[in-house]
Specification:
46% of the residues are buried. The protein has helices at 17-25, 40-52, 72-78, 99-116, 128-137, 154-162, 179-187, 217-228, 232-246; strands at 2-7, 30-36, 56-60, 84-93, 120-125, 145-147, 166-169, 193-195. It has an eight-stranded parallel β-sheet. By secondary structure, it is an alpha/beta fold. Bound molecules: zinc ion. Zinc ion binds at residues 6, 8, 36, 89, 198.
Length: 251
């Protein structure tokens, strides 16, 4: 059974969240999901959904594109819940130019994760090097870290591997122009990779024109099985073990 290690079901991004929740609850191939918050409001929603649905876990955090008017003290308060398995998604996004402000939020949220002994889920848009620099010079995640939907770069990959940080593959690995991601997937050790849909975003082939759903995770698993030349069952087993090793509160 597969764990979707990163997806978003909340009213900010979907109209009828119940339909998507039921879809996951009824899918026998899906063991569990981590529903990731983008700000305080969606993090609260993620906690509520996880409290009501046994397959759902959650990550709480303030995404770099949603930092405006968000209160980090609130984040600390809501993190004390059995189903909160990580702080995320947090990170840097160079598509916006408020980088100084983003860096402040990133550093404070890594400090909260360290205080609570939780791993972090990192969003990096063209910012791998900058984030690694923050890890080295300011604060390092002490309880595990995953770069979700990893933007492929072999140097950055080597840094993550040497720190036992995880790399998560999403729909992009199924695209025709995914050469670099495929190279990364070949090189990443079998005990350091995860799978995710990042739904409702970045649908994999063959459903790129549709809203992405957790059930599409099979296309990502199939692709990794092909790239790494191991069976689909083996990919499921490895990602299941890896996800639970990183997110220790998942049962
Ligand atoms: Zn995401």
């Amino acid at each position: 059974m597969i764990i979707d290690s990163h997806m978003h079901i909340n009213s900010k991004v979907l109209d009828n969240t119940k339909e998507y929740i039921d879809d996951i609850n009824n899918n026998l191939n899906i063991e569990s999901v981590i529903n990731v918050g983008l700000n305080i409001a969606t993090s609260r929603e993620s906690i509520a959904i996880a409290n009501d649905n046994s397959k759902f876990y959650c990550a709480v955090g303030i995404h770099p594109l949603y930092i405006e008017n968000e209160d980090i003290k609130e984040l600390y308060k809501i993190s004390f819940n059995d189903k909160v398995v990580a702080i995320g998604e947090i990170g840097l996004d160079l598509s916006h130019n408020n980088i100084k402000e983003q860096i402040k939020y990133l550093i404070k949220q890594i400090m909260i994760a360290n205080l609570l002994k939780l791993p972090v889920i990192i969003h990096s848009n063209n910012a791998n090097k900058l984030i690694i620099d923050i890890f080295e010079k300011a604060v390092k995640p002490e309880n595990g870290c995953v770069f979700h939907c990893f933007q492929p770069d072999i140097d950055d990959l080597n840094y993550l591997i040497s720190n036992n940080y995880y790399i998560s593959f999403a729909g992009k690995i199924t695209y025709k122009n995914a050469k670099k991601s495929i190279e990364v997937a070949k090189r990443v050790p079998n005990d350091l990779f995860l799978v995710e849909t990042d739904s409702p975003y970045i649908s994999p082939e063959p459903c790129r024109s549709e809203i992405n759903k957790t059930s599409n995770i099979k296309y990502i698993v199939n692709k990794l099985s092909e790239i790494k030349n191991i069976s689909i069952e083996e990919v499921e087993k490895l990602t299941n073990q890896n996800t639970k090793r990183l997110f220790k509160k998942i049962r």
